TrEMBL record:
This is Long-chain fatty acid--CoA ligase. Residues 8-377 form the AMP-dependent synthetase/ligase domain. The keyword Metal-binding does not apply. The keyword tRNA-binding does not apply. Residues 427-502 form the AMP-binding enzyme C-terminal domain. It comes from the Bacteria.
Length: 516
């Protein structure tokens, strides 16, 4: 149950098989294994040891894959970072996870310079992939990853831990997901979880060594790393990796590389459908396309099918990866369904007492089995709230029909998804409330043609003060990632609340804009 072991075995069985294609560069399994070994030697030489955290602030690139594999080889805990986050957001995650080393891509210096990472306690090593695009804003020593890794041949044995299956319940990755308290939580994902995610993905995608998987989703997300990249390497297929999503390039590469498997969020499919109307690329090589990350309309599924995308649905979260799936036929024949549970997990809908509800009744989706996270990093209370009696409570409300198909009703924790990115209103509200002219704020999701959903912030100004919408949006710009920023500010004199003071957010969607 070690990803580095899988690539080593593939390098022995099929050394010349293509493992990774990236911007014209092709790596065989033998070459990818050697790169991972070199990275592991370099990490070991820097003094990183089992249990240490390795943070990655990288685009989709071969270096991400080789470092991810090297971390598994050494028993390090990989911490992928969302490169869309602002400096304060990155600062919290880095202070919370306390990595020994942060490897970042050239071009991200402006995000890191304000954090003064070279002067943190305990110290944090910094390493860059690629040459800096301008005068280095980081004060202090920054290691060159490529030069450092190339100084090693990657031969075995090398000092440190030998390659082999680790304890399957040891942490492999800490993947941060926003929390309802307004701060991110680090989901601790084990080697066992990754293995069973691979088995589920293998069944869902009907994967074989002949498959070519196109990855346009960021590897810092579960979808890109655990549903696409890792299962493909486990099965011995080929990864076609895009640094960022580009509709024209995606359609072009599907045709030219004969892509067979693909996963994206609804926002991506909408962009692809729009681009395909302007071009005439063939999609005949596609065997399975998956769609997930947010609720999918029946109209979008029909449009995808008509255009040549054989789309089937997936639903899950960082803490579990895929929990529900639906075939292409079921997705079209059962509008609104998220499908049935994956093979290697038990999924139920329960009431507040934990009792499984009858078909048609609404309850919370809970899950148990080997695909669950181990815990939230350094958050025992949040872990106890989420995992109770072995069941992980997702916070999603749903009903199940007599055939066992799940239908999502609402997100109990107010989270919404914009362009495939999770957004928690509590985090946005916290930033708005920190503005000196704001007394209170409540954020709700509203439909958006391109992004699926965006935030609408309802704000109560401090008495006698009149902040403008432009002021508040500018306040958010340096404190929140762009996808988290509300698209509209609605000023209110008061919020509709329950007798206990909880904001009734469904009523806010009906609120008319007022002068502050």
């Amino acid at each position: 149950m070690n990803t580095a072991w899988w690539v080593k075995r593939q390098s022995e069985l099929n050394p010349q098989k293509k493992a990774l294609i990236f911007e014209g560069e092709v790596l065989t399994y033998a070459q990818l294994h050697k790169r991972a070994c070199r990275a592991a030697c370099w990490l070991n030489d820097l003094g990183l040891k089992k249990g240490d955290r390795l943070a990655l602030l990288l685009d989709n690139c071969p270096e991400f894959i080789s470092l991810y594999l090297a971390a598994s080889r050494l028993g390090l805990i990989c911490v992928p970072l969302n490169y869309r986050l602002t400096p304060p957001e990155l600062d919290y995650i880095l202070r919370h996870s306390r990595p020994v080393l942060l490897v970042f891509a050239a071009g991200f210096e402006d995000r890191l310079a304000p954090l003064k990472l070279n002067r943190t306690r305990p110290p944090m090593l910094l390493s860059r992939v690629g040459a800096p695009e301008k005068e280095d804003e980081l004060k202090g020593e920054v290691l060159d990853f490529q030069a450092g890794a190339l100084s090693f041949q990657g031969c075995q044995p090398f000092s440190g831990l030998s390659l082999g299956p680790s304890d399957p319940d040891e942490p492999q990755v800490i993947m941060y997901t926003s929390g309802t308290t307004g701060r991110p939580k680090g989901a601790v994902l084990t080697h066992r979880k990754t293995f069973f995610n691979c088995l589920n993905a293998e069944i869902f995608f009907n994967m074989s060594a002949d498959d070519l998987m196109l990855v346009i989703l960021p590897l810092f997300h579960s979808g890109g790393l655990f549903i696409q990249a890792t299962p493909t390497l486990y099965r011995g297929g080929t990864l076609l990796l895009h640094r960022r999503f580009d509709p024209q390039k995606t359609l072009s590469d599907i045709e030219s590389h004969q892509v067979s498997k693909f996963l994206a969020v609804p926002t991506v499919y909408r962009a692809l459908l729009k681009q395909k109307r302007k071009t005439d690329f063939s999609l005949k090589s596609l065997k399975v396309c998956a769609i997930g990350g947010e609720q999918v309309t029946h109209e979008l599924l029909q449009a995808c099918s008509k255009a040549g995308f054989p789309v089937r649905q997936v639903m899950g979260q960082t803490e579990t990866s895929i929990l529900l799936w639906a075939s292409e036929e079921d997705s079209l024949a059962r509008p609104g369904t998220q499908g049935r549970p994956v093979f290697h997990a038990e999924v139920r809908v329960v009431d507040k007492t934990g009792r499984q509800v009858a078909p048609g009744e609404v309850g919370e989706i809970v899950a148990r089995g080997p695909v669950l996270m181990k815990e939230y990093w350094q958050e025992p209370e949040e872990t106890e709230k989420t995992i109770r009696d072995g069941w992980l409570h997702t916070g999603d409300l749903a009903r199940v029909d007599n055939g066992g198909y799940f239908y999502l009703v609402d997100r109990a924790r107010d989270m919404y998804i914009s362009g495939g990115e999770n957004v928690y209103p509590a985090e946005v509200e916290k930033v708005l409330r920190s503005h000196p002219q704001v007394r209170d704020a409540a954020v709700v999701a509203v439909p958006h043609e391109l992004w699926g959903q965006v935030g609408e912030a309802h704000v109560i100004a401090e008495k006698g003060l009149s902040p403008s919408a432009e002021d508040l949006l500018a306040w958010c710009s340096g404190r929140l990632a762009a996808y988290k920023k509300p698209r509209k500010i609605v000023f209110c004199s008061e919020f509709p609340c329950t007798p206990l003071g909880k904001v009734r957010k469904f009523l806010l969607r009906q609120t008319k804009e007022e002068a502050p």
